[in-house]
UniProtKB/TrEMBL annotation:
Keywords, comma-separated and alphabetical: DNA-binding, Transcription, Transcription regulation
GO biological process: DNA-templated transcription
Record domain HTH lysR-type: where: 1-59
SUPFAM superfamilies to which the protein is assigned, alphabetical: Periplasmic binding protein-like II, Winged helix' DNA-binding domain
Protein's UniProt name: LysR family transcriptional regulator
InterPro entries: LysR-type_TF_proteobact-type (IPR058163), LysR_HTH_N (IPR000847), LysR_subst-bd (IPR005119), WH-like_DNA-bd_sf (IPR036388), WH_DNA-bd_sf (IPR036390)
PANTHER family: HTH-TYPE TRANSCRIPTIONAL REGULATOR (PTHR30537), HTH-TYPE TRANSCRIPTIONAL REGULATOR PERR (PTHR30537:SF58)
UniProt record similarity statement: Belongs to the LysR transcriptional regulatory family.
Pfam families on file: HTH_1 (PF00126), LysR_substrate (PF03466)
One annotated GO molecular function: sequence-specific DNA binding
Keyword Heme: no
Organism, as annotated: Sphingobium fuliginis (strain ATCC 27551)
Amino acid sequence: MDRLTGLEVFVAIVDSGSFVRAAERLALSPTMVSTHLARLEDRLGARLIHRTTRRFALTPQGHLFLEEARSILEAVEQAESRMRMSDMGPSGRVALDAPGAIGLRFVVPALSQLRALHPRIVLDLSVGDRTMMFRPEAFDLLIRVGVPAEGKGEVVNLGRTRFVQVASPDYLARRGEPVTPDDLHDHDCVLYATVDRPVGQWRFVRGKERRSLRPASVATFNHGDAIAAAAVAGVGIAQTLEMLVAPELTSGLLKPVLTEWNRESVDVQLFIPQDRMKRQAVRAVAEFLQSRVDWGSSA
């Protein structure tokens, strides 16, 4: 006989107040209810219910065992509920922070696929180039490029990219193509800047040679898509991530310049703060970003 059924029968008898009503509740015959109770008492070696033809009463052992039986049944119900929820897949809200252009070009187009795989997850995506520092305290996941993780947590490599210098064919036809980084001083340049990260220097790497300079800007933006759009419009030369202008380079809207420089790649990283790592929904989104999104990695 099923031991859990014996417990269910015992609790149902007590709760319903009779063997007949307990049988109705459990969809059993009164005879089977009596049989399950008798087998339970035999296993325990104790009488749980004192029965007469008209009424019953719990014995002292019955009172003691009733609390234990309820606890066991409640634990089983909770475990089954957790398993049913698990079968339905992870659920909950996941807060993801990403640089603006990366969020718009890579995360947003993948949202329908994420929803198809995990319909019970709600993604709260924050896009904006506020700072390049990792700020894990407000988010479950953070995407950053080329910046070491700060704080305790797990770093997942999503892909690799590199910095490139680009300009429109129209601009290069009008102004010529720079041959060395120093030539940029004679060109119009489009720079990246934010309120908390003023215009910085462009860095150039060629083997062991490293150069830094700050070209004069004709426009600054705090968003990678704005920088790409300005370069396509012929405003000037821009330095940006290759992953953010790959379609424009492929279509010919932009042309790379100073191609001997900055061939080294940088990591596109996903940071999972330590206190978020065990959340099932967070792990599901992290796995999705790692395995289902094409980050256009550079070799």
